[in-house]
């Protein structure tokens, strides 16, 4: 089937109380691993691209590789812009065939966020593309997103209702305690499910998105460190909390850090255990299999989207 928007998959997720994984892609191995895992699990999936990934790989290369994956699968796949920094980037992606875009106006004050989101929504809807927006601010570092703990803030549910009504956005990313990068929690992990519940009460028909939701898989962190890495004290969002989020109303959960760890861990392991290897297929192949296993676990055991295609 061709690329789809997230509209139908989100409607099903809200009705049946499961989440859909949105996995960041940077190159061929990421795309192959994610779509193969999703296809085998018969799960809908969202492939998402940051502006940094576009700068790295080129928008045409990414789209053509995604198109190849679509031809070899039989599941709903959406192509999404993650953390679109401005209208121009969103327009570029819409014009090049993305089926979903995110405009991240969370760095602005409320009124400016409303204005830029509404502008993107108007253009996107004219072209049959759906829009994700963000209200609240997550801490952490990921690609071009860099927010200190002091600047982070939870989403206000009343503002969320007003924001959706005024902008017409199709889904909303909220801040309930997750953060970007590999260092999400300094102490005990905690998510504000009370905020999620209030948001869902006020805007029950709006799909909710959770950013910064990698679990920072301990075995992958250990594999990196045991093979020359230096990632001390990394701590992510526990799987049981992510599963609860899907059951209680989150439709889309973003995963980036875990995939980076999967790739890096296996490449480091191969380099360390087999120093004579210089064929990229040897270490990139191992990395692809680790990414696939990571995605399969998320789909089957955390998001529970298997069999929902």
Structure overview:
The protein has 309 residues and is an alpha/beta fold. It has one domain (7-218, 232-256, 294-303): Aldolase class I (TIM Barrel, Alpha-Beta Barrel). It is 49% helix and 16% strand. The protein is built from 12 helices and 10 strands. It has helices at 7-16, 28-41, 51-57, 59-71, 87-95, 110-126, 157-167, 193-202, 218-226, 239-247, 257-273, 280-303; strands at 20-24, 45-50, 77-84, 100-103, 130-135, 140-142, 145-147, 171-174, 208-210, 250-255. The strands form 2 sheets. The chain has an 8-stranded parallel β-barrel, surrounded by 10 helices. Helix 6 (110-126) links the parallel strand 4 (100-103) and strand 5. Helix 2 (28-41) packs parallel to helix 12 and helix 11 runs antiparallel to helix 12 (280-303). The radius of gyration is 18 Å and the shape is globular. The relative contact order is 0.16.
Brief rundown of the structure:
The protein has 309 residues and is of the alpha/beta class. Helices cover 49% and strands 16% of the residues. An eight-stranded parallel β-barrel has the order 1-2-3-4-5-8-9-10, surrounded by ten helices. The chain has a two-stranded antiparallel ribbon with strand order 6-7.
